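Appendix B, Record 12. Input sequence as logged:
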Amino acid sequence: MQVGIHLPHIGRKAGPEAIRRAAVQAEALGFADVWSSEHIIVPRGAPYPPSVIFYDPVLTLTWAAAFTKKIGLGTSVLVLPMRHPLPLAKELATLQNLSEGRLILGAGVGWMAAEFAALGAPFRERGRRMDEGIAMMRAVWSEDPVTFPARHIPAVIEDMRMLPRPVRSIPIWIGGSSEAALARAVRLGDGWHGSRLSPEEAVPIVRRLREHRPQPEFAISLRYGWDGKDDGALAGRLSGYREAGIEHILLEPAERDLEDWLRAVERVARIVEDTRQ
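Logged structural output:
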């Protein structure tokens, strides 16, 4: 089981030096990848997310890539239906090429209606826009010239060109645990990226996904927020996820101060190493 670490690009600890130090540390400690999340604009006083300070996820990963050589880069998750797929496809292809093929696109439909409204994106059509957006991005990443018959997203793509194409195919992990998300992962995804499930809750989902997508290249990943209180509890949790068939875990420390965050990541590295022995 591979383990990744969320980058400190949210809240008061966030900043260019925090992101750089965390990315360099994660690579030195042997983590598989580093990750970023997305909220573009949120209502004042909203109970979630816990902070309105959110560095852009794609630029955060680009900054992290500039200071690292091998560690993977992932989004947990980009809300595809809020964005137009063409500029996003250009950004992601650029990051994939600048990082020499290290990107994983974790993608979800989103849940905050007010954020969609602020961006002028239709909330009730987000499922259809998600499916079409994935197809549109894959088309411009793989075809030159490209023609794409858009139905739900405003776009006229007839005999067009978008270069450079990604140096390596960008895997898309579908986020979410709803019925629609699981079905979309099976139908369209290169993997599934769930969130905050216990090992027991993950078992039937893993079984279902593997029934439909037994290919070893189909990734099964889960995001887990660790409060840093009990090393033994985390070790047990990681063992439980491994037994459940989870192949990749993204850990997000809860610490708000950067130095505490970095120390927590060092503890995670030791715990991960101990569970592998």
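The chain has a mean pLDDT of 97.
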